[in-house]
Amino acid sequence: MNKQVEEALVDLKSGKPQEVERALETLQGIVYGFGMKVCGTREDAEDTAQETLIRLARELKEFPNARALAVWLYKVAKTQCLMSRRKSKFAPAQMLTLDALMVKGSGSSALHVKPWEITPEDITLKKELRSKLEDAILALPKHYRLVLLLRDMEQLDTREAAEVMGISEKTTKMRLHRARVFLRNALEGYVQGPRRPKAEHHG
Amino acid sequence: MRSKATYKGHGAQRQNIMANRRCKRIFALLSDYLDGTLPARDCRELERHLEGCKPCIVFLESLKTTVEGCRRYGQNEKRNLPPKLPRELRARLLASLRPESIRARGKA
After folding, report:
1. Is A12 a domain residue?
2. CB pair distance less than 8 Å for B58 and A115
3. Of A21, A41, A176, B102, whose CB has the highest number of CB atoms within 10 Å?
């Protein structure tokens, strides 16, 4: 579960003005960050954060446990994102099949692959790789993208992500695996091909 | 009637297809394996397969790099601060999130 939600709930329960302010900022940060990754634009992320917080302030009737708050928060944020994405240019809705993902793995077959020469740090530190990852996330069909973000970036467990999505744990796991392979394949051409990342230029 | 040579050719092809089928089954299990949620029996089968299948090991490692990269990316992105809320909205939200407001809503 997202640890920040736990901290925000402790702050809310304290009732002290400064801590309630901190809780609001924490919760805004969580839903804004989630909105950025799902929608890909600042405007949509901002709308997502504001609408989710307004609903929270209107509907929070008692202090739930942190898990319930996290699931509620992501569920509302997800709905807001999907609403804003109706106007977005990203609206793919196709199924990802394992057979197709295996073939796309390396041009001919994912079973004939070369070792990667990058580390997980490279993906976040090297600008071009990070941008490739961001493009791949936005190219994921939305229901796969949401599961991947909830599980691998927002650190929810399978059960929590399934609750947010309103699907079974089995479907959650299946979508997560396909989304991961989709991203892996998107990065593969980049880490092995001739368009190797250039050295970073700072300043 | 087919010659022995033809059968031999088909045998090699069949062997390839079988290897591909095993790889496909393993392919579907890799995320659960990385997450440590694969049942023990499947785990044993997967590890036995990996011992003799270099492409699957290479694929698993690249998938692991991707997943860990995603996790790091998620952590880093949390540091990006959102823009400030409009003052009026912020005041309204803070008032609604005070314990007495929450309790009052609960009784309504």
Report:
1. yes
2. yes
3. A176
